[in-house]
User: Which sequence fits this backbone?
């Protein structure tokens, strides 16, 4: 199979799964409270396996934010935070244990000011704490469980 086609298909699948998992978290009310646990954020470790995850995560996040009715600053900056986190995860792929760190840090820095200015959620320090806690659960715990589960099958799933 053509490598470019394979990467495009992988990116599209990752984007689709991200959207579905975002809707699942919303359906269970996990993305609506102070500490938001989004199953889709576990996918942010996928750049460890494939560069196709970078555009896949960005497009998935962008579509999820649009389809769930987020404010424009959240759509723009939240998606860009995911893009940056995915890119940095790919760059750090030699260090397995660092895979969830870039998305946690980028969201910890970007999302709280967005919550403040787009939604009026105060105080800022509380958003930093709650966003970070949610990202640690989603990316750090669920993401690393996903990474270890996929690692055994990486050659079959992410064949390049």
Assistant:
């Amino acid at each position: 199979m053509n490598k470019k086609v394979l990467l495009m298909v992988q990116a599209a699948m990752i984007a689709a799964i991200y959207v579905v998992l975002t809707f699942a978290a919303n359906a269970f009310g996990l993305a609506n409270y102070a500490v938001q646990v989004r199953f889709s954020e576990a996918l942010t470790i996928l750049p460890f396996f494939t560069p196709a995850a970078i555009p896949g995560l960005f497009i998935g996040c962008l579509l999820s934010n649009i389809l769930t009715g987020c404010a424009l600053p959240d759509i723009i900056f939240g998606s860009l935070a995911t893009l940056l986190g995915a890119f940095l995860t790919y760059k750090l792929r030699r260090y397995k244990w660092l895979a969830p760190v870039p998305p946690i840090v980028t969201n910890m820095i970007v999302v709280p000011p967005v919550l403040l200015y787009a939604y009026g959620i105060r105080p800022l320090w509380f958003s930093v704490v709650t966003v970070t806690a949610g990202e640690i659960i989603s990316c750090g715990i669920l993401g690393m469980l996903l990474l270890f589960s996929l690692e055994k099958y990486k050659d079959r799933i992410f064949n390049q």
In short: The helical segments are 3-27, 53-67, 72-91, 101-119, 124-151, 154-157. DSSP finds six helices and no strands in the chain. Residues 124-151 form the longest helix (28 residues).
